[in-house]
Design brief:
Layout: H1 11-23, H2 28-40, H3 46-66, H4 78-92, E1 95-96, E2 99-100, H5 101-109
Antiparallel strand pairs: 1-2
Amino acid sequence: MAQLIIEDLDPEVLEKLEAIAKKNGRSLQSELKHILTAAASPNIPKDIEVIIKKAEKMREQIARHAGIDISKLQPINREKAAIKLAELKALKTISAGEMSIPQMREEGRRF
């Protein structure tokens, strides 16, 4: 296995990476491996394929209901869909301090 040394890393970046690792229940090294592996992966995640298949079925059902010829529908752009999915996942991880959005929502229900 190769080793990687990163010099002059901003301490704030390191703190944020450590917080992400802690939130995901991983060590810093494990989190960095996960991030680098995901960044280097050219494949569209499997979950995007499931989402695209469901979206295509929904479009066909809507088209049939509206009386539109299904063959005239444009195919879903997989790259654009993958980008949008990544943006949505990023929104799920936005947090205020140590709490994620779902945790804040749950905390709000308590009052």
